[in-house]
Design brief:
- By secondary structure, this protein is of the alpha+beta class.
- It has helices at 2-12, 41-45, 101-108, 196-199, 213-218, and strands at 17-18, 24-35, 51-57, 60-67, 71-78, 83-90, 93-100, 115-126, 129-138, 143-149, 154-155, 169-177, 180-190, 209-210.
- The strands form two sheets. A twelve-stranded mixed beta sheet has the order 8-9-10-12-13-2-3-4-5-6-7-14.
- The radius of gyration is 17 Å and the shape is globular.
């Protein structure tokens, strides 16, 4: 079951590239995870305080996901030169993957779930943005709800979690998988960045082991 939580979270650890009326900024998502299954309570307790931070500027993006005591994940994507740096830290140590958008898209081509997308007339406001509702249903019947705004456009290249059929940027995700429910909602928006140079630096930090995607896959990650 703990593996199910990591799988659900890693689906969201992705490369989000934003080109919009807002040309740079920092979005913070709060993360709530719950389950009705008693044997999941200890693992869920380790998820307390989880959040995701999204930074973007000039077709560059940085996604940081802090999964409580379980795992930290950082993904930096530069659409200008097509490069991606992924950093993962947790019980498996500190590991880094250097790749390209093209390689990532090719590797994930047959791995991502197939969804049926249903658009709803429901709307709500999140952090001042008018959001519409889309329901994604996978082949096993699991439903995910995306509340998205068309006031911010998103490049779909190099990422995994945004369905191509959903326009704009998702401001809230409600996902269900194997009895685990996770909700991510934008809770804070900053429309400028103070230190964009270091945020989008592709240098592998000291202490990280550089691995290939194949090596990470062999480790079950």
């Amino acid at each position: 079951m703990k593996k199910s939580i990591l799988t659900l979270l890693l689906v969201l650890c992705c490369q989000v590239l934003i080109n919009a009326q807002i040309t740079e900024g920092h979005f913070t998502y709060k993360i709530d995870v719950s389950s009705d299954e008693p044997d999941m309570q200890m693992a869920l307790g380790m998820m307390q305080g989880s959040k995701m931070d999204l930074y973007f500027k000039d077709k560059m993006t940085r996604v940081e996901m802090n999964m409580g005591a379980m795992m930290n994940f950082t993904s930096i994507t530069n659409e200008n030169d097509g490069t991606i740096l992924t950093l993962m830290g947790g019980v498996m140590g500190k590991n880094a993957i250097q790749s390209t958008i093209e390689e990532t898209e090719k590797m994930n081509a047959d791995k991502m779930p197939k969804y049926e997308v249903t658009f709803s007339d429901e709307t709500k406001t999140i952090e001042g943005y008018n959001c519409k509702k889309a329901i994604l249903t996978d082949e096993e019947g699991n439903e995910s709800v995306f509340w998205y705004t068309e006031e911010i456009s998103i490049s779909k290249r190099g990422q995994n979690f945004m369905n191509e059929e959903i326009p704009g940027m998702a401001m809230q995700y409600d996902m269900n998988n194997n009895g685990i429910k996770m909700t991510m909602t934008v809770s804070k928006i900053e429309k400028s960045l103070n230190d964009s140079k270091s945020l989008f630096d592709m240098t592998v930090p000291s202490g990280y082991k550089i691995m290939t995607p194949e090596e990470m896959k062999a480790m079950g990650m």
